[in-house]
Amino acid sequence: MGDILHDLIFDYTLRNVALGSALLGVVSGVLGSYAVLRRQGLLGDALAHAALPGICLAYLLTGSKATLVLLAGAGIAGWLGTLLLLRIVRDTALSEDAALGIVLSTFFGLGIALLTLIQQRNDANQAGLDRYLFGQAAALVSDSVVTFAILGGIALAIVALLGKEFKLLAFDPQFGATLGFPMQRLDVLLTSLLVIAVMIGLQTVGVVLMAAMVIGPGAAARQWTDRLSVMLALAALFGATAGVSGAVLSVTQSRLPTGPMIILCLTVIVVSSILFAPARGIVWDVLRQRRHRRSLTAPALVPEWEGGQS
Amino acid sequence: MTMTSEVAILLTGVLAASACSLLGSFLILRRMAMMTDAISHAILPGLVAGYFLANGPNLLIGSFGAAVAAVVTVTLVEALQRTRRVDGGSAIGIVFPAMFALGTVLVSRFFADVHLDTDAILYGNIEFVNFDRLFIGDRDLGPQSLWVMGGLGVINVTFLALFYKELKLTTFDPGLAAAIGISPILIHYGLMATLSITAVGAFTAVGAILVVALVIVPAATAYLLTDRLVIMIGLSAVLGAVAAVAGYYGAVALDASVAGSIVTMTGVLFGAAYLLSPSSGVIAKARRARHNQQRFAGEMLVVHLFNHEGTPQQAAESAAGHLVTALNWSSQRATQAVSYATRRGLVIQSADRLALTDAGRVAGRQLVDR
């Protein structure tokens, strides 16, 4: 245990991986909480897939592999994907679920086509673009972590500033509109912030696992509280915990990839929250039901003071 | 019989596309499109377990493992949804990444030195279908994937043919279905089982993302083109096949991934339907809206002139320039209305003065009485 703590502080790789993963956990936990409350969890999945062609195009156009350049491409593509998603839902009779699937798969297909196109050009410099597919937290350098911190910091600062507005957006947008808040613009802003969270996550956990990073912490935190502020704090804590423990596990054990370990740690948190959280936990529900059933079948004539329950 | 690589790839693509998109219509109508995404990703640990059990790549055992994983995924998602602690989308988004992560961990933990290409899991390697051949004894029966895709097609067509009525009823009116003794739950699990088999079979040849795209996108495209279920199902199979052929040649021309190119092509077809569909395309809708707007403005004009005909204000009210103030119109709108009404022969304009024709008077009377 002491060794791990020592390494966390002094080992360059582990420190970067743990810091990057923790940052991702905090940012996606907070923004994902809003997505979960608005029943838009899978938007994170679509955004992550939609980002791939953006990454490839950014590389094709600039020839640069700098984190910020590629992430900007990812962000723009993700944003476009969301826009298209909203248009499909608005203009056609297709459900949101179908629109998600359409945007997700076609953008990703385009991304794969572009990625292979780049690989065929066979320049040595392209290596590493496909790390965005599965994420490669182990390759996080301190440069990327600083970029993450700045991006995530901006996103969290905006959430802190617009806490009240976003709360309205999450729970009662119509009421917010009657109060005169620009709900549509706030919606776009909140979704754009989610894009930032996804951008950070791509390099760490990759396209496929990003859905869990967005949904997991919020879904777990929701079980523990009915207050938004507490839920956001818990989601950040859960996200960071999953990030750090996944990073530590993967670095200290051989042959365990970081991204998937983060997701598995997160899954443990989610499942135990759903089972054991006070008040909302399923286990308590089942126990309560069993107790009630027993009290119903107990002889109704036994007076309460003789052991019957009320 | 030998066949060229090109024919093998094209046939595999077309068969996979038609087999997958056959199921898409019901998934779209039941708002379960994202279950495809979940299943196609979540079968990874099953494939790995199959690889482990068979001590190497084995189509049958691998598919069996994947099918088990698919069933586990559907069951877990539904169990999670039933707890009502999370919404439906979140349940999907919690389960399939966990399964996929488990699969990836298993791969890197136990098979790091074996070739189990994780990229291929996402976008397949349809390029090489001709090299993976099916042998019975010593007889070469051709590319294995052709047999798998053909089998999937047969399974899906049979499933739809046998349970078409039940599927239709439980999709559009589950209450009625249950009332007349068709179990919506049974049909639901039947559909999920067929989808799982399809995902598993297609996955090995064309990868997870192509499966998702081929199931969802052609059916969604067909949905924009017709209101009839039978036509929608047939059309989606055709659209899938078209995307497969066009995608293949696109990939050859650009030297890009065939799977990626086919998916992109399904997207292009969807975009075309989204814009150009005569019934629900964006352009057709905009034109209809514009037409209605013009007609409404023209009718307003006729009623306006009709109401003032024979009154002392007629001269003032029938000046074309007066419409802007009288009806609170923009001048552009006024011009539109006048041009609509004159084109239909309801109004004639001489200099600045508008007058109703006989037909216009009849129309005005009808509109006022309506």
Question: What report would you give on this structure?
Answer:
The complex is a heterodimer of chains A (310) and B (370). Helix content of chain A is 80%, strand content 0%. Chain A starts with a helix and ends in a 13-residue tail after the last helix. In chain A, 52% of the residues are buried. The mean pLDDT of chain A is 87. Chain A has a single domain (2-296), classed as ABC transporter involved in vitamin B12 uptake, BtuC (Orthogonal Bundle). Chain A is mostly helical. Chain B is mainly alpha-helical. Helix content of chain B is 76%, strand content 5%. Chain B contains 17 helices and 4 strands. Chain B has helices spanning 5-29, 33-42, 44-54, 59-83, 88-110, 118-123, 144-172, 174-179, 184-206, 208-225, 229-254, 258-276, 282-308, 314-317, 323-326, 331-343, 358-369; strands at residues 133-136, 139-143, 347-350, 353-356. In chain B, the strands form 2 sheets. In chain B, strands 1-2 form a two-stranded antiparallel ribbon. In chain B, strands 3-4 form a two-stranded antiparallel ribbon. In chain B, β3 and β4 (353-356) form a beta hairpin. Chain B is elongated and about 100 Å long. The model of chain B has no long low-confidence stretch (mean pLDDT 87). At the A-B interface, α3, α5, α10 and α12 of A face α2, α5, α6, α10 and α12 of B.
